[in-house]
């Protein structure tokens, strides 16, 4: 009788709102977008949500981020559809996939507890598998072995012995791999300066599991995911100009309606 009511991720609404202003000419081609702090206030969203929206717009060709300068408008990449669903699809995929930082936040909640449970039940064979994954991560050429990374977290989820939490963790991984925004920001780990940090964090998790220390395992997993989120966020941050700059454009919240 009724069509399913989809839950639209907030970053997608923000991306569509900004894309609409670009199409309308409020943000002209070649102009720098307002600073993050202005957009966050105008849209009434978190900084992480705004960054996800800007990443979506960059992936779709609406803007480009110039390191050390900011985000600049490239213009609408194509004709703008009249239908609301089509307009959203022009910016990011229609499927209600959560944003990368939202997914990392959820992973922190679930995988921290999985690590704590695993510390009390992990087997020697599973620990050997984790060390093998770590070795693969260390020797992954110029990139990052995403398969070994996924396997690492999968083994911990299995070792925890809670199938419900393990399924949730697996779903988070699927959401990430299916999200083109995640693919865009995940490329940051190819940086050789970042890999040693990630490897060290994975090793700290294994050591806590080996010691059978639940609190230490939870803390190590939290530290890993927190540091990863901060690092990825920093990859897309552009230094802002003086805080005295006033918002140069009309409020954007209207573009989001009640969702803001």
State the secondary-structure class: mainly alpha
Whole-number average pLDDT? Answer: 78
Tally of structural domains: 2
Rg, rounded, reads 20 Å
What gap, in angstroms, lies between the N and C termini? 29 Å
Can you give a write-up of this model?
It is elongated and about 60 Å long. The two termini are 29 Å apart. It has 2 domains: 10-96 and 238-259, Arc Repressor Mutant, subunit A, CATH 1.10.10; 100-235, GntR ligand-binding domain-like (Four Helix Bundle (Hemerythrin (Met), subunit A)), CATH 1.20.120. The chain contains 11 helices and 2 strands; from the N terminus they run αααββαααααααα. It has 260 residues and is mainly α. Helix 5 runs antiparallel to helix 8 and helix 5 packs antiparallel against helix 11. The chain has a two-stranded antiparallel sheet.
Key structural traits:
260 residues, mainly alpha, Arc Repressor Mutant, subunit A, Four Helix Bundle (Hemerythrin (Met), subunit A), two-stranded antiparallel sheet, 11 helices, 58% helix, elongated, disordered C terminus
Task: Give the SSE map.
Blueprint lengths: L9 H15 L11 H8 L3 H13 L3 E4 L3 E4 L10 H6 L10 H19 L5 H15 L7 H15 L2 H15 L2 H7 L8 H16 L3 H22 L25
Antiparallel strand pairs: 1-2
Helix pairs in contact: 1-3, 3-9, 5-7, 5-8, 5-11, 6-7, 6-10, 7-8, 10-11
Pfam family, one: GntR
Organism: Dinoroseobacter shibae (strain DSM 16493 / NCIMB 14021 / DFL 12)
Keywords: DNA-binding, Transcription, Transcription regulation
The gist of it:
The protein is mainly alpha-helical and 260 residues long.
């Amino acid at each position: 009788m009724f069509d399913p009511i989809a839950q639209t991720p907030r970053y997608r609404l923000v991306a569509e709102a900004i894309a609409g202003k670009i199409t309308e000419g409020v943000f002209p081609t070649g102009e720098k977008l307002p600073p993050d702090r202005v957009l966050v206030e105008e849209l009434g969203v978190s900084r992480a949500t705004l960054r996800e929206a800007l990443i979506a717009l960059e992936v779709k060709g609406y803007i480009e981020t110039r390191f050390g300068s900011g985000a600049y408008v490239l213009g609408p990449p194509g004709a703008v559809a009249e239908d609301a669903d089509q307009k959203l699809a022009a910016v990011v995929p229609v499927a209600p996939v959560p944003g990368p930082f939202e997914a990392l936040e959820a992973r922190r909640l679930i995988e921290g507890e999985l690590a704590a449970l695993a510390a009390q039940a992990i087997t020697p064979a599973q620990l050997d598998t984790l060390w093998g994954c770590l070795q693969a991560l260390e020797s992954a050429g110029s990139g990052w072995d995403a398969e070994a990374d996924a396997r690492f977290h999968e083994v911990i989820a299995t070792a925890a012995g809670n199938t419900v939490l393990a399924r949730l963790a697996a779903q988070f991984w699927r959401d990430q791999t299916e999200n083109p925004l995640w693919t865009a920001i995940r490329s940051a780990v190819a940086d050789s300066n970042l890999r040693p940090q990630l490897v060290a964090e994975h090793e700290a998790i294994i050591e806590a599991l080996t010691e059978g220390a639940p609190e230490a395992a939870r803390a190590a997993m939290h530290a890993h995911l927190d540091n990863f989120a901060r690092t990825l966020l920093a990859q897309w941050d552009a230094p802002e100009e003086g805080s005295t700059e006033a918002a140069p454009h009309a409020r954007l919240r209207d573009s989001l309606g009640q969702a803001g």
